Amino acid sequence: LYDRRREYHIVILGAGGVGKSCLTSQFVHNEWIEYYDPTIEDVYRKVIDVDGRSCILEILDTAGTEQFSQEIYMKAGQGFLLVYSITSLSTLTELSDLRDQILRIKEANSVPLVIVGNKSDLEEDRAVRRDRAIMLSQKWGRVPFYETSARKRQNVDEVFLDLCRQMMRADVSG
Ligand code: GDP
Ligand code: MG
């Protein structure tokens, strides 16, 4: 029997400079790149195995575009990584607006989503305690939360895998 491979659209959102492009590069290419053009927005594809099922991921690395395109992305997205940096509290507080916007645009009470606190290797510059993100996660109905380091490639696969499992459970594949 032909088992159609599932295809999922992932959108990576968060303030500029939190490491969205670095996380994407580590996940898709296993590569650490120190500098990305902050204005570059692109789609990457990767096939991964999730619990024995092959999934095609289409990953949109956003770059703070205007409201209009953001709404189009959110509508098309099936799973979302909301990324902040553990070195900047404002990048975490900004996530609430993004989530509100996603839920409004998708007309849903919840969507597959992961809270990602990036730059965990910069412990000496930490400005956001883990509790802070855990509180947010609980407020949002126990949304999964991970701290990651794109630089050290820590927890990178885990966040994508968690998101894939959520999307599979929601059965959002088109
Ligand atoms: P974006 O604007 O969210 O796409 O952020 P980038 O991926 O371009 O990263 C912004 C800056 O943060 C770059 O200078 C990266 O080298 C740095 N950066 C990204 N991820 C990490 C990380 O996990 N650890 C450290 N130490 N720096 C990071
Ligand atoms: Mg970027």
From TrEMBL:
<dbReference type="GO" id="GO:0005525">
    <property type="term" value="F:GTP binding"/>
</dbReference>
<keyword id="KW-0472">Membrane</keyword>
<keyword id="KW-1003">Cell membrane</keyword>
<dbReference type="GO" id="GO:2000114">
    <property type="term" value="P:regulation of establishment of cell polarity"/>
</dbReference>
<keyword id="KW-0342">GTP-binding</keyword>
<dbReference type="GO" id="GO:0003925">
    <property type="term" value="F:G protein activity"/>
</dbReference>
<dbReference type="GO" id="GO:0005886">
    <property type="term" value="C:plasma membrane"/>
</dbReference>
<keyword id="KW-0636">Prenylation</keyword>
<dbReference type="GO" id="GO:0007165">
    <property type="term" value="P:signal transduction"/>
</dbReference>
<keyword id="KW-0449">Lipoprotein</keyword>
<keyword id="KW-0378">Hydrolase</keyword>
<keyword id="KW-0547">Nucleotide-binding</keyword>
<protein>
    <recommendedName>
        <fullName>Ras-related protein RSR1</fullName>
        <ecNumber>3.6.5.2</ecNumber>
    </recommendedName>
</protein>
<comment type="similarity">
    <text>Belongs to the small GTPase superfamily. Ras family.</text>
</comment>
<keyword id="KW-0488">Methylation</keyword>
